[in-house]
Amino acid sequence: MECDDLYRNEKARRDRSTVIRRVPYEVLIDLDHAWDDHAGVRHRTALTLDVGLGGMLVLMDNTVHVGAPVIVDVAPLRAVCPTACPLAEVAWTQPVPFAPSTLHFVGLKFLR
What we know:
Structural class: mainly beta
Order of helices and strands: HEEEEEEE
Radius of gyration: 15 Å
Number of domains: 1
CATH topology: Thrombin, subunit H
Shape: globular
Distance between the termini: 29 Å
Low-confidence stretches: 3-8, 31-35
Strand order of the largest sheet: 2-3-4-7-6-5
Mean pLDDT: 80
């Protein structure tokens, strides 16, 4: 890893704040694959773990696909991150180790 990469990673960590809040969200899914949901939208609640200028880390009780668009109710986060954007994209997902297979850490990238 080069020094520039290390600097960017460290700066990104400093821009993040630990915030644990329940936030409602909707995953907008492809209507062709929405056989168990007539409207093509899944309404759920996630638990935020941290939030920053570019996105947030959440804990979800279901799997989502990388690249899926998500609408998040960011009102509970405004005090900590006034620039939080309600439209986000799933950047990455990772199952929680030693937990039921439905629990996932999910990185959301804010879309501005």
